[in-house]
Design a protein that fits this description.
about 325 residues; alpha/beta; Rossmann fold; eight-stranded mixed β-sheet; four-stranded antiparallel β-sheet; about 30% helix; about 25% strand; globular
């Protein structure tokens, strides 16, 4: 996590992003309902920083990342990348930004072609979209990328099934770096790995960010991981951002009841502190994004909910400098 970045130039600005998917009520019905996967999300990421998106599974996180990468065309809102609103571009105009925005996936095995060797996987990424590089430099480029992610170039002859989970994820990172990206969307990149390997990969992300001036959108449900790597954190719930602030402030002074519940679930290494603290147990499951509650989406599970929470959606407002929260009970 780099909290000392001085330049304030914004690389990515997401404004009121919405991504709604039509869903048929049944195979025999012509009427359709709408799944609100993303419902009015806004945030910015400065160059060289990491913005963490956290929340329970099935929330806004991955869909937001896919909209930023151009995999989905948003229903509404703007995505301004490097000063250009990419939601207004044609497919041909958007192509020139494809290499600058890359994704690292949750499942390193499922995201790698099992028929291609490690060397070929990285090589194919380098020359994708007709990108030209002298043949004499191609092998050196692949090997240098493997070394950059702490893989011995001899592993280039291996196939994904012959590699460990940590090696496969390093290969996925090398493939993303092959395009010389400015922005990387990291979609739960360590959740499928052993805890000991998770720490190594997180350290690698930080080292690469420092060396290559990378900007990350880091998607996760593990707040402990997000705390370690992120400069700023956005907490999501049912398609919306409910709290946004810098990483240190979020853990020191969480304001939204949902954020407090998530933080209380993180196990502590200090036994005495862990034994004495009270965990916040949320009742019920997260509602369906097809049939979202009226008012604040969190009110059915919130012990502090009052009348206005049931009818009026609270705006995401600034409570203190840089600390925004969407909650009626927070003053």
């Amino acid at each position: 996590m780099n909290m000392t970045i001085e330049q304030n130039s914004v690389l990515l600005e997401v404004n009121n992003l919405k991504m709604h998917f039509p869903v048929s009520e049944s195979i025999f019905s012509k009427s359709k309902t709408v799944l609100k996967a993303v419902d009015g999300v806004s945030f910015t990421i400065n160059r060289g920083e990491t913005f963490g998106l956290v929340g329970e599974s099935g929330s806004v996180k991955t869909t937001t990342g896919k909209c930023i990468l151009g995999i989905h065309n948003p229903t509404d809102g703007n995505i301004i990348y490097n000063g250009i609103d990419i939601t207004k571009l044609s497919k041909n105009e958007a192509k020139k930004f494809l290499r600058e925005k890359q994704m690292i996936f949750q499942d390193p095995y499922g995201s790698l072609d099992p028929r291609r060797s490690a060397f070929t996987i990285v090589k194919d990424a380098i020359v994708a979209d007709g990108h030209k590089i002298p043949k004499g430099e191609l092998k050196d480029k692949v090997n240098s990328l493997l070394e950059l992610v702490e893989l011995d170039p001899v592993i280039g002859t291996r196939y994904p099934h012959e590699m460990s989970g940590g090696q496969r994820q390093r290969l996925g990172i090398a493939r993303a770096l092959a395009c010389d990206p400015k922005l990387i969307v990291c979609d739960e990149p360590v959740s499928a790995l052993d805890v000991s390997i998770q720490a190594q990969i997180i350290n690698l992300f930080e080292e690469l960010q420092e060396k290559m001036k990378l900007t990350y959108l880091f998607i996760a449900h593990d707040l402990a991981v997000v705390r370690h790597i992120s400069d700023y954190v956005g907490v999501t719930y049912l398609g919306k951002l409910v709290e946004v602030t810098d990483s240190r402030e979020l853990y020191k002074n969480p304001l939204h009841p949902y954020t407090k519940a998530l933080l209380s679930a993180i196990p502590l290494t200090n036994y005495e502190v862990e034994r004495k603290r009270n965990r916040i147990m949320l009742q019920g499951d997260i509602p369906s994004p097809i049939n979202t509650p009226t008012g604040c989406p969190f009110h059915p599970r919130c012990i502090y909910a009052r009348k206005e929470c049931l009818t009026c959606m609270p705006p995401l407002r600034e409570i203190s400098k840089g600390h925004k929260v969407a909650c009626h009970i927070v003053n």
